[in-house]
Amino acid sequence: MSGLSKFHKNERGWADYLITRAGILIFCSILLLLVFKIPALFTQQNEIGMLDAQLCSLTSFIEGVDGSKIRSSQCYEFDIPPGIENITIGISSGFVCANSQIDTGGVTRAQALIRGVYPSNSLWNNSSEMMLVIADMCDNRTGLGDNLLNESDMQHIDTLLYQVKTELANESYIPDTTRSLIAEKVMLDYRTPGGIQRRGITVVYQ
Q1: In whole angstroms, what is the distance from residue 40 CA to residue 63 CA?
Q2: At 185, is the secondary structure helix, strand, or coil?
Q3: Could you tell me if residue 199 is inside a domain?
Q4: Helix, strand, or coil here: 37?
């Protein structure tokens, strides 16, 4: 009996030893994973912070121009930190987004715009080209100065802007971050039974 008892004691001892060793190995493995992962997490968090700052600045600029009650145009300079060349900015009618490729993978951030804007697209590259599209669609009426649009013209323009909005939702405008970005508020005047009304359209281009 004493031999059997001793065997059971040794068996329990070996079991405790193996469990302890297994626990230590698991703990060390987790610790090693954390050691290698923490720097990557810090890098990713820094990248997120930088992208959010870029988006906040750009969104504020666009909304500032869009909020103007008169025709106005302003330039924006991208403030990309030196040595960083992997950032892509995208602008649609309703959102501004930023994407960055780092060692841990891609990071994408986005901010919504208060009102719709109309960056360069397949129909126009800038405000002058947009006015040519409007004039061609509205029998040379532009809504600028004394060349007033009709109320029915605005329905056609709304359809046009919806088409552009849909296009940009599928493929955002991607500006060159080494060049200035222009945001321009264009004011269109049109006749209604109640008098002359004004409609603003914000165009973003380079």
Answers
A1: 34
A2: strand
A3: yes
A4: helix
Sheet containing 118-119, strands listed edge to edge, beginning at the edge strand earlier in sequence: 72-76, 181-192, 195-205, 118-119
**Distance of alpha carbon 203 from alpha carbon 191, whole angstroms:** 23
Over residues 18-60, the pLDDT tens digits come to 566 666 666 555 655 555 454 444 455 676 788 899 999 999 9
Contacts of 14 by beta carbon, 8 Å cutoff, 6+ apart: none
Question: The domain containing residue 57 runs over which residues?
Answer: 37-205
Pairing of strands 105-112, 118-119: unpaired
Whether 16 is covered by a domain: the verdict is no
Cβ(80)–Cβ(87) below 8 Å: yes
Say if pTM beats, i.e. exceeds, 0.85: no
Q: How many structural domains is the chain composed of?
A: 1
Strands (E), the chain: 72-76, 87-91, 95-102, 105-112, 118-119, 181-192, 195-205
Structure confidence at residue 69 (pLDDT): 92
Secondary structure of residue 182 in the 3-state scheme: strand
Q: How many beta carbons lie within 10 A of that of residue 42, not counting itself?
A: 10
Reduced to 3 states (helix: H, G, I; strand: E, B; else coil), residue 90 is strand
The answer as to whether 8 is a domain residue is no
